[in-house]
Automatic annotation (TrEMBL):
The keyword NAD does not apply. InterPro entries: Thioredoxin-like_sf, Thioredoxin_CS, Thioredoxin_domain, TPR-like_helical_dom_sf. PANTHER family: GEO12009P1. It comes from the Bacteria. Residues 6-137 form the Thioredoxin domain. The keyword Lyase does not apply. This is Co-chaperone YbbN. Residues 14-24 have a biased composition (Low complexity). Residues 1-25 are annotated as: Disordered. It comes from Modicisalibacter tunisiensis. Pfam families: Thioredoxin, TPR_19, TPR_20.
Length: 309
């Protein structure tokens, strides 16, 4: 299937197509604004050559603002497997009426001049990937994406590298909240909890209160609550409930989640009444910090359930 240039509708040459796979990708190759002047050419005629994902949005639509950066990111990642055409329905009400748009965001897949599929609302990125995968070949994964590199750096304790990557991603996609949350997470890793909290506080409400942001907030709080090195040294040799709890809290704050979770579970097993059931409550907070799908959350939820019931 030939790759077309969405600016002109003309097929890319072989050299142009190959260069689009390099590090520096021109977004205008794969992302285009459409209106009455180019809708026929870009969407209807263009879809005869390459699938078109039509994103119908409006300036007043908050979910649209959350969805668009995800679609733009995927358009760049797919690098020519589809063109993302963005239609502002406020400025193009005639087209919106012809398309039967009743609410936004409304995303349509146009292939061979026909509507193949559509969805309404701001779906999570995972579901959009699944939706695209039904019709389009997924991009080759020759190397890890910048986001994956940042996550790997954080997992390895290299917060500085993760911060640098997220800062570059935010420059390219300033309206994508997950990158803001990623930067906040990296700042926590550098011990800059106040700056991380400020970033989280400025997120749109649906992201500020979402699971990812809550997880980063929990890490900030763990860092503030955990004993410092001097206090930790003073606990050396003690094996009472207070010492066990504080050591586990320090491990969690340092990102040593597995040992921290194991310590909290052991404390819960030995002295559930300590601190008004604080070991169990802290376990739940760690699950929140890690996220529901994290392998440690899944494993230790099971252990906690087995212990309690």
């Amino acid at each position: 299937m030939p790759i077309v240039d969405p600016r002109t509708g003309a097929p890319l040459t072989s050299s142009e197509s190959q260069s689009s796979q390099g590090e520096s990708i021109d977004p205008s190759r794969y992302i285009v604004d459409v209106d009455m002047s180019n809708f026929q050419q870009m969407v209807l005629e263009g879809s005869l050559e390459i699938p078109v994902v039509l994103d119908c949005w409006a300036p007043w639509c908050e979910p649209c603002k959350n969805l668009m950066p995800i679609l733009e990111k995927l358009a760049m990642e797919y690098a020519g497997a589809f063109v993302l055409a963005k239609l502002n329905i406020e400025d193009n009400q005639q087209i919106a009426a012809q398309l039967g748009i009743r609410s936004v965001p409304d995303v349509k897949l146009i292939m061979q001049g026909q509507l193949y599929d559509q969805f309404q609302g701001a779906l999570p990125e995972r579901q959009i990937r699944e939706w695209l995968a039904k019709y389009l070949e997924a991009p080759a994964e020759a190397s890890a994406s910048p986001e994956e590199q940042a996550e790997a750096a954080l997992a390895a304790g290299d917060a500085a590298t993760a911060k640098a990557i997220y800062q570059e991603l935010i420059q390219a996609y300033p309206d994508y909240p997950d990158y803001q949350i990623g930067l906040a997470s990296a700042l926590v890793g550098e011990g800059q909890g106040d700056q991380a909290r400020e970033i989280l506080d400025n997120l749109p409400p649906e992201h500020r209160d979402g699971a990812k942001a809550r997880g980063v907030r929990a890490r900030i709080e763990f860092g503030e609550e955990a004993p410092g090195r001097e206090e930790l040294a003073a606990l050396e040799g003690r094996d009472d409930s207070e010492a066990r709890f504080k050591r586990a809290l320090r491990q969690v704050a340092d990102g040593d989640y597995e040992n921290g979770l194991e310590g909290l579970l052991a404390l819960l097993r030995q002295d559930r009444g300590y601190g008004d059931d604080i070991a169990r409550k802290t376990l739940l907070r760690v699950f929140d910090a890690l996220g529901a799908d994290h392998p440690l959350t899944v494993a230790y939820r099971r252990k906690l359930f087995a212990l309690l019931y």
